[in-house]
Design brief:
Elements lengths: L2 H6 L2 H27 L8 H8 L14 E5 L8 E5 L2 E5 L7 H10 L4 E6 L5 H4 L2 H7 L1 E7 L11 H12 L4 E3 L5 E4 L3 E7 L13 E6 L2 E5 L5 H10 L7 E3 L11 H7 L3 E4 L12 H9 L3 E4 H4 L1 E6 L4 E6 L9 E2 L2
Parallel strand pairs: 3-4, 4-5, 5-6, 10-11, 11-12, 12-13
Antiparallel strand pairs: 1-2, 1-14, 2-3, 7-8, 8-9, 9-10, 14-15, 15-16
Helix pairs in contact: 2-3, 6-7
């Protein structure tokens, strides 16, 4: 068909022909890839077409009833975690400004449009740099965050823009206060463990939350350091957990032996970037968790990390790079 003839077609017809052209191009590319890697099938599946059109994140089974998932999304040197039940979605931190695409693509792949609770552990950019972009695009039920005084209020552009969006959209803000309990869907519970008191340092003032689903629990520690860890221990809070998001990316300034023993995790998740400038996670901290029997999982080496639980058993899966899908496996 000549270009002039194509232009004279009605707009709906042009759109249909353009879409068919795109699908044909994808078909040709997919067949070429199949030939290159020696696949026996010469016809692409819809899954392979989708994978070519969008960089893929871990595919997990459809969320079953009475099941919860916790995803640690690889955002490089930063934190991002997603709690998902059949009737609730919680996003904890989101990484730097330029990691919005990672998080957005992941949420889109899981079909998430509404975030019931958005948690900002603290106002450092590696934890909330793209949070205002999340708040711009997604329907946010409420935001949980530490309360900042005039003396330590963050001055970053990312924090200011987030607060502007929260104010303009009248999103409810929940102050992270020790002992506060929140429902995560019908069967999940979220308890605020810290901050126990006011801190000048933003790291120690991180919101620490413990998610419990049945008899399985996850502890998210933000960037707390030794002082805050000791204050948490002194508060008498129950911090035992099957899975811990290791404090401060595995820095030597955190994870005292006393704190780690109190948590006694089965899994220790380190959220770190490949070859980061801080040397995270520090080898002695990794060994500390390993020596108490915890299985080590790291976003820099394992990529995205998924936990699935029915409240009794835990399954895990990981995915490094694009285009692969993690197979969930039972805990050892």
């Amino acid at each position: 068909m000549k270009l002039s003839a194509f232009k004279n077609l009605p707009p709906p017809v042009r759109k249909i022909l353009a879409a068919l052209g795109i699908l044909l191009a994808v078909f040709v590319i997919s067949v070429s890839i199949n030939d290159a890697v020696g696949f026996s099938s010469r016809f692409p599946t819809w899954r392979s077409i989708y994978s070519l059109l969008s960089r893929e994140v871990p595919q997990v089974s459809e969320l079953a009833e009475n099941t919860a998932e916790v995803h640690f999304i690889d955002v490089g040197q930063g934190d991002c975690a997603l709690i998902r039940t059949t009737d609730c979605c919680v996003l904890i931190d989101c990484g730097e400004y330029d990691k919005f695409g990672n998080v957005d693509r992941y949420l889109n792949y899981l079909g998430i449009k509404n975030i019931d609770l958005l948690i900002m552990s603290h106002a450092h950019s590696d934890h909330m740099g793209c949070m205002y972009r999340i708040a711009e695009k997604y329907n946010i039920g409420s935001v949980l965050m530490p309360e900042y005084s005039e003396d330590n209020i963050p001055l970053s552009g990312s924090y200011t823009r987030l607060m502007d969006i929260i104010t303009s959209r009248k999103i409810p803000v929940i102050c992270a206060e020790k002992g506060k309990m929140l429902n995560v869907g019908e069967n999940g519970r979220l308890e605020v463990i810290a901050p126990v008191k006011d801190y000048d340092d933003l790291n120690n003032g991180s919101a620490v939350v413990r998610f419990t689903y049945g008899n399985v629990s996850f502890l998210f520690c933000g960037d707390i350091e030794k002082d805050a860890e000791q204050d948490i221990l002194d508060s008498g809070a129950d911090i035992s957990a099957d899975v811990i998001k290791v404090p401060h990316h595995g820095s030597g300034s955190s994870s005292t032996k006393k704190f780690v023993n109190a948590v006694s995790p089965q899994y220790a998740v380190f959220c770190t970037g490949v070859n980061n400038d801080f040397g995270h996670p520090h080898a002695n901290i990794v060994n500390l968790y390993r020596n108490i029997g915890a299985e080590i999982l790291r976003t820099d080496t394992d990529g995205n990390i998924v936990f699935s639980t029915d409240g009794e058993k835990i399954q895990t899966g990981t995915q490094k790079g694009q285009g692969s899908a993690p197979a969930l496996k039972d805990a050892a």
